[in-house]
Design goal:
By secondary structure, this protein is an all-beta fold. It has two helices and 40 strands. The strands form eleven sheets. Strands 1-6-7-8-9 form a five-stranded antiparallel β-sheet, with no helix packed on it. The radius of gyration is 20 Å and the shape is globular.
Amino acid sequence: MRGYDGWVDPASIGSPWGDVVSGVLTFRGSPTRRWHGTGPVPTNPVVVWRFPAEGQMCSMSSVAGVEREWCGMGWTGQPAVFERQGRTWVVFGAFDARVHFLDGDTGEKIIPDFTTADIIKGSVTVDPDGYPLVYVGSRDDRLRILAIDRDRPTELWGLDATDTGPRMWNNDWDASPLVVDDYLFAGGENSRFHVVRLNRSYGADGLVTIEPILVWDVAGWDDDLLAEIDSNVSIESSPLIVGDTLYFANSGGLVQGWDIDGLADGVEPTRVFRYWAGDDVDATLVPDDDGMLYVGVEYERETERSLELGQVLKLDPSKPDDPLVWAVVAHTKPGTGVWATPAVYDDLVVVPTADGEVLGISRASGKVHWKLEIPGPIWSSPTVVDDVMVIGDCSGRVLAFDLSGGESIPTKLWEIHTGICVEASAAVWDGTVYIGSRDGHLYALRDNS
């Protein structure tokens, strides 16, 4: 299937997810979470369509026993955009508790919605090997595998958050799964990490089939972590794989690397990297070409560790006993810090904060070269394609900035108003920006031809 004798070639950092399916197939595009899409990025876009054209995507959901209405798309909410059978598909879950399957050119439905029992916050994943499968989690406790080669999307299999070993926190699935070599990798807010052998195939009728087996699941916490913080140790950051190491973090601030070299031969993964960041890490870890990890940390618990370290960290996993390279403070008060996933751009790491700042930080030194101030909290992870950053803010705008000036403060290129906070992340594909808003819609932004 590939020339690299391992799970994910480290040389593929920043590259598309293989050559079988063209598109942005998961949150941040690839198993390394470093590929954001393909241009051209529109230069003077208009809203060419929004979905739905009438009404809004809304439903009721309960948090801590309080029910309220949720509308549109939120964190992380990046749609999958891909080419299939001569059409551009846009697939995403939303706060109307449905998975939608749209034509990227027109915004019309290709197949009917798939309805779940609660809202969907995370980003869906599309099978990278060409099987007509979509992997998606919902707050209704279930991680699902949907077949899209029928008249209606069909659930072929699901994993309930209560189906595995000892768990903590809750039963949502915010993290965007990965599929590599017939294995599904997924973290849950049940605070466990799961690996499933899919056994994908086709039946005699030509339709896709699967025979999934849960081959490994592990607690995302350990006793040392629980000695430091409360029981909120859910896994909301999306997993990534570099070489034979699986990385993820949790809401207790534990950053972990697991050796999966022997997984396909039945050898259980072993933890080879552990670092406590001091507070909630829901943002996805981002690697650079040198194997460093960039970590965005929230500021909620006011732990001594969090005060000491800061909220933007550069870690060197090759030095597990002393991995911290540098750290940057990025908070003003509890409830701030970093929710959005950083972006590596040339010599910079670009990091939005809940205080409403976007920081351009030197990857080498940790020096903050520039700051943009836009209405926060900024939960929208920056999407960078062709030197242009696309990001949402909480005044309801989708913004584009020119990053080509490097250490100079970026120039705003354009903005589109949606009216209500944009928490979700954009997908850029072949001249179109696809992004959801809390106003109840998904927008397609394109130059008016």
